[in-house]
Design a protein that fits this description.
360 residues; mainly alpha; hpI Integrase, Chain A; 3 domains; 3-stranded antiparallel β-sheet; elongated
Length: 360
């Protein structure tokens, strides 16, 4: 493939090897590149050379950026966030999401075609608002982008890279959605008609339903989480979501039976088709999505099962604190969402029953 990049020179050496050099913008200086076009960081080396900087063969993400640019700020922030994850102070899911969003931010282009990442880190608030507004077709993603930008500039202000919190007054869009769609009893029946007992798909649904766990925990659970309490098998785990309380609940017969129907000696309850544990929540999410599609339920997700479990627990008379102990909520207001809805339903039923004897 022939490269057509301004200032890029390809030179064939007497030895037969090929090297690439770049003419720095505004200078009569050619800078040698230490990587070839097939290297994943080739364009980063090229853009740095155009700015007059030669990157070493092995360089960090921060070293591969121009100091003071948005690229540089994002690289430093992600390095900081990665250290927080290593120290147990932040979630790896947060790191993955913010890395994706901030990389998308730096790749955006202005009207003249220049990347945002090459601009100074002092992004005008008006530009942040334009970015938010351009993503309003997907309000959830727009809200996450605002959160990522605000976190980026809050950190920049805290360590003295900016004199003010530049994104403090950028508000997230209002979300009208109530989140994941809860599964109905009919949905659960339809899924189980397609995915019969003894299959990984059936075990997955059973695990979600009888533990109310998040998918970030489901792929890690296995026999190692089981404990015996007064002759009964329980399952306990520390949810990965930051701030969640430790969960410890009895294994009800449907879950116990489903876990034994596969292979109780596996490292994890849920295994890939290659007989290995899932390496990440994303891997299990993709597989569960396929199982849902096979059952004609492609519009539903695993989190909807968690919501359905919360609703059923509340409708069966469980208190807020009982639901907290199962869902791992650390604040009562989160579990009250389910009990409040159940109480309203019971009050409505009671109120309407009083109208049955009305002379109409």
């Amino acid at each position: 493939m022939k490269l057509k990049l301004p200032g890029l020179w390809k030179e064939k050496l007497p030895s037969g090897n090929v090297r690439y050099r770049v003419l720095a913008e505004g200078k009569r200086k050619k800078i040698r590149l230490h990587v070839a076009p097939d290297h994943p960081q080739f364009l980063e080396h090229y853009h740095a050379a155009r700015a007059g900087i030669q990157l070493p063969p092995e360089s960090t993400a921060v070293e591969r950026t121009i100091k003071g640019s948005l690229d540089w700020l994002v690289a430093r922030y992600l390095e900081h966030l990665s250290e927080m994850v290593d120290n147990g102070q932040a979630s790896n899911l947060t790191l993955m999401q913010r890395r994706s969003l901030l990389k998308e931010l730096t790749a955006m282009t202005a009207e003249n075609g220049d990347r945002f990442g090459s601009f100074t880190l002092h992004m005008p608030q008006s530009q942040m608002i334009r970015i938010r507004n351009s993503m309003m077709a997907t309000p959830g993603k727009a809200a996450n982008m605002v959160k990522a930008i605000r976190a980026l500039y809050r950190w920049a202000f805290e360590i003295g890279l900016t004199e003010h919190h530049l994104a403090r007054d950028v508000s997230a869009p209002r979300l009208n959605s109530t989140g994941a769609t809860p599964w109905t009893v009919a949905d659960l029946q339809q899924y189980r008609k397609v995915h019969l007992p003894g299959t990984p798909a059936h075990l997955c649904l059973t695990l979600f339903m009888f533990t109310a766990c998040r998918i970030s925990d489901a792929y890690r659970l296995g026999p190692g989480n089981e404990i015996e309490i007064q002759g009964q098998t329980w399952i306990g785990w520390q949810p990965k979501k930051k701030g969640s309380a430790f969960v410890e609940i009895p294994m009800l017969p449907p879950l116990y039976k489903a876990t034994r129907a596969i292979n109780a000696d596996n490292e994890a309850y849920l295994m890939t088709e290659y007989g290995k544990p899932f390496r990440s929540a994303e891997g299990l999410r993709n597989r569960f999505k396929k199982w849902c599609e096979e059952a004609g339920l492609g519009h539903l997700s695993s989190h909807g099962i968690r919501k359905a479990a919360g609703t059923l627990l509340a409708e069966e008379g469980c208190t807020t604190y009982e639901i907290m102990s199962i869902h791992g909520h650390s604040e009562a207001k989160t579990s009250e969402i389910y009990t409040r809805a159940a109480n309203r339903k019971k009050l409505a039923q009671s109120a309407m029953s009083k109208l049955t004897s009305m002379d109409w």
